Amino acid sequence: RQTINLHYHTFKNKDVQLTVTLFPYMLKEYNRRWFLVAAAESDGKLLTFGLDRIDDVENLPSHKYVDYDGDLNDLYEDIIGVTYKEDKDNVVEAIGQKIAAGEYEGL
Fold first, then answer.
1. Buried/exposed code over 39-56 (b: 16+ C-beta within 10 A; e: otherwise)
2. How far apart, in whole angstroms, are the C-alpha atoms of residue 25 and residue 46?
3. pTM of the prediction?
4. Pseudo-torsion of CA 56, 66, 10, 52, nearest 10°?
5. In the structure, what pLDDT confidence band is assigned to residue 25 with cuts at 50, 70 and 90?
6. Are 44 and 89 in contact (CB under 8 A)?
7. How far is CA 7 from the centre of its chain?
8. Structure confidence by residue, pLDDT tens digits, 57-67
C-alpha cells in the first residue's frame, strides 16, 4: 500500500491533465468499466476514477499511507454504481425541497 499521485483527464476535457494525491483502496467494476476507489490525501473524501481516464500513476513512498477506517465492501453493498455520497442525507433533503418547489415535473 502506497500513497500515489494520480494524473488523469476528465470526460469533458481530455486535453487538460489533473493531478491528485490519493490513498488507493480498491478497484470496482460497474457497467463493464473499472474504477479506482481512493481517498484524497488533502481531505480524506472518497473519490472514484475511471481507469480509462488515468494517464499516469506516480508512487510517493515519502508520504504516509492512511488506511480507510471502515469496511469498503459494506459501504458499497447497497449502492448501484461506484459513486458514494458521504453527505447523502443532505442530497435527499435537497431533492425533497426541489420536488416541493415544483422543480421536478411529473413527480
1. bebeeeebbebeeebeee
2. 9
3. 0.73
4. 50
5. very high
6. no
7. 15
8. 999 999 999 99
